[in-house]
Fold this sequence. Notes:
The chain is an alpha/beta fold. It has helices spanning 25-43, 67-78, 99-108, 123-133, 152-166, 184-195, 225-229, 253-260, 264-267, 290-293, 300-318, and strands spanning 56-61, 82-85, 113-118, 140-146, 173-177, 200-204, 220-222, 234-237, 275-277. Helix 2 links the parallel strand 1 (56-61) and strand 2 (82-85). Helix 1 (25-43) packs across helix 11 (300-318) and helix 5 (152-166) crosses helix 11 (300-318). The protein is globular, with a radius of gyration of 19 Å.
Amino acid sequence: xxxxxxxxxxxxxxxxxxxxxxxxxxxxxxxxxxxxxxxxxxxxxxxxxxxxxxxxxxxxxxxxxxxxxxxxxxxxxxxxxxxxxxxxxxxxxxxxxxxxxxxxxxxxxxxxxxxxxxxxxxxxxxxxxxxxxxxxxxxxxxxxxxxxxxxxxxxxxxxxxxxxxxxxxxxxxxxxxxxxxxxxxxxxxxxxxxxxxxxxxxxxxxxxxxxxxxxxxxxxxxxxxxxxxxxxxxxxxxxxxxxxxxxxxxxxxxxxxxxxxxxxxxxxxxxxxxxxxxxxxxxxxxxxxxxxxxxxxxxxxxxxxxxxxxxxxxxxxxxx
Length: 320
């Protein structure tokens, strides 16, 4: 008997968003189509929808975040939800309360959706399983980034951005550049791109920042930046995640920029209409030159805007 997908309910509908890996293509397209309709609504200045009126969304960020937390808050408010963002540093979790005890207490406060960012890979899966085991199927979990594992809404907003500017995935060559070893965004993007049928996905970086098994994920691996960027349609830059590194994996940030920083000269190796993306926060002069970050091919701020629409779509689908 096939194992039940922990993200879907018995009718095959999205119940939790835990990862891009294992997310059916049809569900992914449904999220992207719904989010695109919200982008259109935004352009017509319709600021709120009643989809989550009376629902309570708890943002549980056990790691620091600005963009992700803020866009989830805006998205929930635009769906008319009541939003509570917990200060974890001042919460009972800082006094030794377990993660699942925290969840149980918040469920007792009528929580409907948990948006969870956690330093431990798999924490959102653990919460979703606990809710299922305790017969709390009406409560939903959205993964806002777990350890080195995944960041599914970032992957989805990246796909929405690519689709907006490039329309069709089937002819695209996409390069993901930088610290793939520590990047949950890279994993979500790779799973999304391969599921949506991108022609070629490339990963570029120094050997010390590339995990094993990338070829098995359906990507081409390059350690030479110039070779990897040749004729690509999309360039996704990643920051160096120094907070997750153990030991000296690089000589220096200056040396890294010389080898792997995206400069106007390097960008010229890609197609002339290539777009440049970055999940943020950017480290200018480390992985990307300011001339590129602020240039005409950059769609980095569009990613932030599309992030609100994607998070509206996801919360609206899981908690409808």
